[in-house]
Design a protein that fits this description.
Elements: H1 9-24, E1 28-29, E2 38-42, E3 48-54, E4 58-60, H2 61-82, E5 88-93, E6 96-99, E7 110-114, H3 118-123, H4 125-130, H5 134-137, H6 144-170, H7 176-194, H8 198-205, H9 209-213, H10 219-222, H11 230-251, H12 253-274, H13 284-300, H14 302-326, H15 332-349, H16 357-379
Parallel strand pairs: 3-5, 4-6, 5-7
Antiparallel strand pairs: 1-2, 2-3
Helix pairs in contact: 1-6, 7-8, 7-11, 11-12, 11-13, 12-13, 12-15, 12-16, 13-14, 13-15, 15-16
């Protein structure tokens, strides 16, 4: 026995809007407790980062004003969770009563659209300006239950594909490069100590501004694998073990290696600028670069890592920088240079499934200009 499913006009509009925003614009549903007759969607890369589809009946101005108050309160929480300062909202009201006389667009950052049926929705100039392809994307040959099945199938397929992408990023991978770098740091410390050549190696291969400017450029590389003692080596290797494994797993081995080396060299260049004639060794500049990479990654995946970014990553960076300023003998210039370099090169390399081409191009431009400026300071400005 066949069963016919009848869908009212409001449900059809909601389904079509969901299909468009999820499958075409990559919005994701926001799960909210206690919110009824409305659907919240977010995409932090769009101009309107939050879309509200409100199907519940709003009878008068008091109900509408309360809706705006509730929306602002929820948006405040979303800002805090996602570390986003400006969240523009598009509210699509499908059942706004005639007794609502308040200017629905009187609130900054909240664009409200009133449409009682699909025809009004398609004719809305504000909506057409923000999403010009919406009208054409809401045309379907399917009707009734066939439309319901198509939209449900498309959304489920899109969600499965997104889940696979996220799982691939966060799936743990064996950190070969991290362990290789740790091994190199250990070997470059133990071998000179065993053969009684530790001081000679430090003197010949440490980061030393005057020597680098004299043409010994290899010091920018070798210095980031040398350490000033067993405690220094142990602390840096442990930090690399903790942070390096995450970055290598999240971004991949090639990007991790580029970030590590570039951050270390950038930290070494900063050390040449601000360190005077004092030599410097250690992987901490590169490790700070990995912290910058982790911060940039966490920002792009802040829907998943928002609390971690605020409670762990940012405090970790701040505490270590503060320790560097307070503790004598710490080359904090290398830390700052590594942090800046790691963040910039990560922007240039991009975050899988998140970074746009324009973001990566801007990252390469910023990285190139900044690197050229630092090199100028090291080799030209400091010689006068």
């Amino acid at each position: 026995m066949e069963q016919h499913i009848e869908l009212d006009d409001k449900n059809v509009i909601v389904m079509k809007l969901l299909h468009y925003f999820i499958t075409e614009k990559n919005y994701n549903p926001i799960i909210l407790q206690g919110v009824e007759n409305e659907i919240w969607l977010e995409n932090l890369k769009e101009d309107y980062k939050v879309i509200r589809i409100v199907s519940g009946y709003i009878h008068n101005n008091e109900q509408f004003n309360f809706d705006i108050f509730k929306t602002k309160r929820i948006i405040k929480k979303i800002k805090a969770k996602t570390l986003t300062f400006n969240v523009n909202v598009l509210s699509i009201f499908l059942n706004l009563g005639d007794n609502v006389t308040t200017d629905i667009n009187a609130n900054p950052n909240i664009l409200s659209i009133n449409a009682h049926n699909e025809k009004e929705l398609q004719k809305n100039d504000l909506l057409a300006e923000v999403f010009p392809d919406l009208k054409s994307k809401m045309v379907y040959s399917e009707k009734g239950v066939e439309l319901f099945m198509k939209i449900t199938s498309d959304i489920n397929k899109h969600n499965r594909e997104d889940a696979v992408k996220v799982e691939k990023v966060f799936k743990s991978k064996f950190p070969y490069i991290t362990y290789l770098i740790i091994a190199m740091c250990v070997i470059f410390y133990i071998v000179p100590v065993v053969f009684g050549a530790y001081n000679d190696v430090i003197e010949a291969y440490c980061i030393h501004g005057p020597s680098v400017r004299a043409g010994q450029y290899y010091r920018l590389f070798t210095g980031i694998f040398l350490h000033g003692g067993p405690i220094h080596l142990l602390l840096n290797c442990y930090a690399l073990y903790v942070i390096g494994r995450q970055i290598e797993s999240f971004l991949g081995k090639f990007k991790f290696l580029i970030i590590y080396l570039f951050s270390g060299i950038m930290g070494a260049l900063f050390s040449c600028i601000f360190g005077g004639a004092t030599g410097s060794v250690g992987a901490s500049g590169a490790i700070f670069g990995l912290m910058g990479a982790l911060l940039y990654f966490g920002y792009h995946y802040r829907v998943y890592l928002g609390n971690v970014v605020k409670s762990q990553i940012i405090p970790l960076i701040c505490v270590n920088l503060l320790f560097g300023f307070l503790q004598p003998g710490v080359d904090n210039a290398a830390h700052i240079g590594g942090l800046i370099g790691g963040t910039m090169i990560t922007m240039a390399l991009g975050i899988d499934n998140k970074s746009t081409t324009s973001e990566k191009v801007n990252g390469w431009i910023m990285t190139t200009i900044f690197t050229a400026f630092i090199i100028f300071l090291v080799f030209f400005f400091k010689t006068h």
